[in-house]
Prior knowledge:
By secondary structure, the chain is of the alpha/beta class. Helices cover 47% and strands 14% of the residues. Strand 9 (337-342), helix 13 (345-358) and strand 10 (363-366) form a beta-alpha-beta unit. Helix 1 (27-51) packs across helix 5 (116-124). The longest helix has 27 residues, at 78-104. The chain is globular and about 80 Å long. The relative contact order is 0.13.
Amino acid sequence: MAPATYIYTTYSDAQLGITDSRGGINVVTRNKWLRLLTVLFAFSLFAAACGSSDDGDAGTSDDTSTEEDDNVLGGGDDDADEEEAMEDEDAMEDEEEAMEESADNPADASINGESAAAFFEAINNPPGPADDSMEPVVVTMANMEGAAISFPEIREGIEIATELINNELGGIAGRPIQLEVCVHDFDPNAAINCANEIAETQPNINVNGIEFFTPAMYPTFLGANVPTIQTVPIFVADFTQPEVISPWGGCPVAFPGGATYTVETLGLTKTAVLYANTPPGLECFADTEERFWDYLIDENPGQEWQGFADVSADPSDDDATVQAIIEFFGDTPPEETGIFFGISAADCNAIMSAITASGVETTVIGAGSCIDDSVLANPASVGATFGQQGYISERPDLYDEYTAWELNWRNDLLENAPGRTVPVSAFLRVGHSTGILVWEALNDMVAAGEDIDDPAAVVAWFQGLENQHMVGTPPVTCTDNTEEFPGVCKKTLTYTLWNGESWELGPLNGELINVGDIQNRVAEGNPRQVSEE
């Protein structure tokens, strides 16, 4: 039986030399009260302005108040009155400063989600390190990292977030995060070992990294009441566990979104769909590609699609795959055909090169998994559109003021993170954003009087997320998850265009495709077939 490797990572020391002593302050609570006081103070200023206007009733009220103040001042102790006046003046100055801070905060909850404003304040006015004397909040992660298949980016992303939270953002209600990561090779027994160790740890919350064995792990997690969130949902078991929340879309967003885009947006006459001939690739294809393209093609007569399996990491079959696609296209005009790449970036790059060599002219559409530097350097990618479930990190200028600030901040943080050993990538960003989500959500729980040490309360809180701020991506809501995908909260993506040098918003101009619509339609018109064992 292959052993699992357990990595204990506790970032609780003020390694960055921060001396602010407010480590015990609940950032979310403090910011909520700050906003409330700001609103109340602004309202009082508005009322005072009305009192000095031509309104007769307001003027009467203002005069009465002045007479009462004069009576108190005339009959009291002068020193005490002066001290009170100075205190009032100081309080007003504090409120004015708070108002200025609030006015400078570009977050808009309707665009950036709840907690975005509090996050902006915390980053720009960090409360300081967590309190090491307090009981830690334990966060666990199981992640596949081995010789054959390895995804250390997810782990390093959450480690960078944890270091920031513990050293600058005051931990979770003052408590430091203790991150415990169990890494294992591509081995189901090693994955189950990790699940058992995590269950014994009884964390406040468990974050699944990139896992190819989650169906075998969930019985352990659920049986031990371990609150679990998912980063990259791949299997039907990832989609259908209501107690396991995925703030990220994975297959249930990427592929139904791709089907919607090729059929309903582009209206292609013929679409070739490339999928990975691996266990997770085959399961994703059957559940989130085949059913959806079949349904949409039935709704749109005159269009056709066909799936083409690609042997992952084996370029020997690429020429044959491209030839099969050419035969499928036949004499259909090139502008009416398209190839959807639902495979890994390395495989995308290899097949794109084979397409270029064959002289095929067609529309290229890539899933988010297809994006990396090698693909973008390939001539076949010029003019292609790619699915994006988050914002384009390289183009902050395309977005609102808050999102531009957040992307620039994150780009700088990840690029300069000490100890980072992996390239800055989509998976690194997912790990980092998930760590920030855990911090925001558990802080919000404490602010609401909920118990973050109660597993059932933690699960219920994540199931109830609405318009939740997420770093680098539009907000997510978990209260409207669809019938066939009850564990998947993320439901939106867009398609952006690569012009060979930089990203553009593309045909959708940044408009989001909400896959909740097509998920509901397919659940009714082409439902998942459950095998009887």
